[in-house]
Design a protein that fits this description.
By secondary structure, this protein is mostly beta strands. It has helices at residues 190-198, 214-218, 221-226, 232-237, 250-262, 271-275; strands spanning 9-16, 20-23, 27-31, 40-43, 47-52, 70-86, 90-92, 99-105, 115-117, 121-126, 144-152, 158-161, 164-171, 174-177, 204-205, 229-230, 245-246, 295-296, 302-303, 308-316, 321-328, 335-340, 350-351. Strands 1, 3, 5, 6, 8, 10 and 11 form a 7-stranded mixed beta sheet that branches. Strands 12-13-14 form a 3-stranded antiparallel beta sheet.
Length: 353
């Protein structure tokens, strides 16, 4: 008699867990030492292949040199997309990169992302209000799509002009003085102010001071607190702002108030509250720090200190009138108005690009 032998045959069984399916022969009979055939795990929409239950990450997989039965399950995980964008004036991770995308399994962590401001700007926050920079999203359980937000940085935090130091603040793409202009080459008493305005000449005054002595005018508390009140001829005919700065146009004031609503998170109708100093009745969230310096009328007299703020623009509006902006006590709004060029209003300087 002759002993007869048969080679061992093994079974390879492949199954799919939740979130996917398999392509290829899912049950295979393979002789000892031989190789199986390829099987691929295919993830459903919103899922991604993670690994096989024996910790293999090969996909497709082909089991080789078989020496025993194999039973494995393809494991899938929910996958989320993390998108990081840069707003204007910045980059993501490296100069020139404006967006980056990550694919992350549920409950896993993303990788670190850095928002890089362009020259002259600073990172403020992400559009989901996070201020982490760099940021790493952890324990991810949903898709994320955020944009890095950047703000202008004023080149100089302070400006010394005619013996007065002014602080600056960046609001959107503009850089403003935080105080009213106090440039005072001369001072006009009430009658001289009327004569200057009638002649279409620059007129200068300090609230409540009906005199002509420059030293005395500059010693007034209202001068150090509220600056100077100018007729519009001083705005139009004299470079009253320092070099590199100018009296804003009507359009530039509109850019300011529009930015507060469109990008600054200020509800429409509350721009004045954002511009007014907290010592007045605003919250000064913009940093503009407007104070109620009020005005000087055509007759040279001063009116309503502590109730209103008026700011000239450099834009005329017909014969004898020019555009301005005003704020009032107990009022959250900013008003655009056309005033007589003989009126005395405050001036805020805007950086010239």
């Amino acid at each position: 008699v002759t002993a007869q032998y048969t080679i061992n045959s093994y079974t390879l069984t492949y199954t799919a867990g939740t979130g996917g399916s398999l392509t290829g022969l899912t049950t295979q009979s393979v002789n000892y030492g031989s190789n199986g055939t390829a099987v691929e795990a295919v993830a459903d929409s919103g899922y991604a292949f993670v690994k096989w239950s024996d910790n293999s990450t090969d996909n497709p997989r082909t089991d080789i040199n078989i020496s025993g039965n194999i039973t494995v399950e393809a494991q899938f995980g929910i996958q989320y997309t993390l998108i990081y964008n840069s707003g204007d004036n910045g980059y993501i991770n490296m100069i020139g990169s404006t967006s980056t995308t990550q694919l992350v399994f549920a409950s896993y962590n993303g990788t670190e992302v850095l928002a890089i401001p362009a020259d002259g700007y600073k990172f403020v926050k992400w559009s989901d209000e996070s201020t982490n920079n760099p940021r790493t999203d952890t324990n991810v359980l949903n898709n994320i799509n955020v944009t890095a937000q950047f703000e202008l940085v004023c080149p100089d935090s302070t400006v010394l002009y005619d013996g007065v130091t002014y602080n600056t603040v960046a609001i959107g793409e503009q850089c403003w003085f935080k105080e009213n202009l106090a440039y005072l080459p001369m001072v006009h008493n009430n009658s001289d102010y009327v004569a200057s305005s009638t002649a279409g000449l620059p007129g200068y005054g300090v609230y409540g001071y009906d005199g002509s002595d420059l030293t005395t005018a500059k010693s007034q508390a209202n001068y150090s607190t509220y600056g100077v009140l100018y007729n519009w001829y001083a705005v139009d005919q004299v470079n009253i702002c320092p070099t590199g700065w100018h009296v804003p146009t009507d359009a530039e004031f509109t850019i300011l108030t529009d930015w507060l609503v469109n990008y600054g998170g200020i509800e429409s109708g509350y721009e004045g509250t954002a511009l007014k100093a907290s010592v007045w009745d605003g919250n000064n969230s913009s940093g503009f720090t407007a104070l109620p310096a009020d005005s000087r009328f055509d007759d040279g007299d001063f009116y309503d200190l502590g109730d209103f703020a008026y700011f000239w623009s450099s834009s005329g509006h017909g014969s004898g009138f020019s555009w301005s902006r005003s704020l009032g006590s107990g009022d959250a709004r900013v008003y655009r108005g056309s005033g007589s060029q003989s009126l005395g209003f405050s001036v805020r300087c805007l950086r010239t690009e």
